[in-house]
Amino acid sequence: MTNKARIKPSDSLQGVRYEIRGRLARRAHEMQRRGHEIISLNIGNPGLFGFRTPETMRLAMIENLHASEGYCHQKGIFPAREAVVMQQQARGVAGVTAEHVFMGNGVSELIDLTLRALLDPGDEVLVPSPDYPLWTASVTLNGGRAVHYPCPPENGFLPDLEAMAALLTPRSRALVLINPNNPTGIVYPRETLQAIVRLAEKHGLIIFSDEIYDQMTYDGVESIPVAPLVRDTLCATFSGLSKIYRACGYRVGWVSFSGQVEPAQAYLEALDLLASLRLCSNVPAQWAVQTALGGFQSIREIVAPGGRLHESRQALIDSVAASRYLRMVKPQGAMYAFIGVDRNAIPHFDDQDFALELLEQKQVLVAPGTSFNTSYNDHFRVTTLPDAATLRAVFQRIEEALESYAGKPGRAERIAS
């Protein structure tokens, strides 16, 4: 007799969410298959909006394909790791060597590996709220507990340092920074970073600093790397080719360790073991790293006045300012805006409900704010990657959808009726 019992997924997935590619994205895909043209603002995917990887990086890959057919060292090819070392040294990070750098299949893989090498069941990691949800998911999948420290909109999405300190317990192992921030676009000032570093050093927390958007800032705002500020604990700096170099599909990221490296040798050996178990990361694309980091930084033109990202961001700022319903902390970096809805104008606003309605009625896909582990449901995230004209047209659709939504009863009223 055939056993038709349902196959149960692992209990380890309880509480794991990645709604950026979840229910709404699946619905958008269904609509596309039926012929609808969807404007997808839910993911920061430069290639989807016509951005190209610099040609010099493509040529570096092609010219080294002959050396890419075998496995490389589990930490990555030496020229790529050495290029990361030189970048870190140029930023004032002392003592980094190629042995302290691990290449990965994107930062996503390295987030998982670095947490897996660290956490025992019940260990705690401080993660910002709102966060990039992969951090929360990876902590959970590796047996830890994500403890969210608030970065409230009324504080300009900067961390509440007192609340952060109050969340520490004897099980706290690490603290995550995302700067420039995804989803809010905020860039942390030096004094905020210094205060967080002092807190981590005082309590022996590893600092995991996600700096994938490090050169993507606007209006003269400076993105300050954390590693040069860290002396008395371990700092892990994450970056990669996906965003600054518009090469998401290459799947190349890296993590470099600095600060108190010697006391962390057992941990780094554990990470080396995990890197060995997946053999190595994508070899051909690693050859683009040295060219990327050492070559012309075209991102500076793109974020400068007149550059495409700068102009798209300005179109978004202007559209929100003209809206009857929207408010926003102006993004200073990255390629996102975390947009709030005025509760006085729409008291019953629910981000999940609205995002589905916007998709169904206006063919625009956004990410609800609660996807980013917030305690409030009156925000949504969009990417600023479309050109300025497209964003202006999109926000006309969003305004129309909000107008319609404002005139309808909320979820509670619908249930009551």
Structure description:
The structure is a single chain. With 417 residues, the protein is of the alpha/beta class. It folds into two domains: 13-42 and 305-408, Aspartate Aminotransferase, domain 1 (Alpha-Beta Complex); 55-294, Type I PLP-dependent aspartate aminotransferase-like (Major domain) (Aspartate Aminotransferase, domain 2), CATH 3.40.640. 38% of the residues lie in helices and 15% in strands. The protein contains 14 helices and 13 strands. A seven-stranded mixed sheet has the order 2-8-7-6-5-3-4. It has a four-stranded antiparallel sheet with strand order 9-10-13-12. The chain has a two-stranded parallel sheet with strand order 1-11. Helix 2 (55-63) packs across helix 9 and helix 3 packs parallel to helix 9. The chain is globular, with a radius of gyration of 22 Å. The termini are far apart. The model has no long low-confidence stretch (mean pLDDT 94).
Question: How do you describe this structure in short?
Answer:
The protein has 14 helices and 13 strands.
Question: What attributes does this structure have?
Answer:
14 helices, globular, Aspartate Aminotransferase, domain 2, 2 domains, alpha/beta, 417 residues, Aspartate Aminotransferase, domain 1, seven-stranded mixed beta sheet, four-stranded antiparallel beta sheet
- Which CATH class of the largest domain applies here? Alpha Beta
Question: In whole angstroms, how far apart are the ends?
Answer: 48 Å
For the largest beta-sheet, the strand count, sense and barrel status come to: 7 strands, mixed
Give the count of structural domains.
2
Oligomer: single chain
CATH topology tier name of the largest domain = Aspartate Aminotransferase, domain 2
Instruction: Provide the CATH superfamily of the largest domain.
Output: Type I PLP-dependent aspartate aminotransferase-like (Major domain)
**What is the ordering of alpha helices and beta strands?**
HEHHEHEHEHEHEEEHHHHEEHEEEHH
Determine the fraction of residues in helical runs and give it as a percent range.
Answer: 25-40%
pLDDT under 50 segments (min length 5)?
A: none
Strand order of the largest sheet: 2-8-7-6-5-3-4
Class from helix and strand fractions: alpha/beta
Principal-axes shape call: globular
Number of strands: 13
**What's the total helix number?**
14
- Proper CATH architecture of the largest domain: 3-Layer(aba) Sandwich
Share in β-strands: 5-15%
Query: What's the alpha carbon Rg, rounded to whole Å?
Result: 22 Å
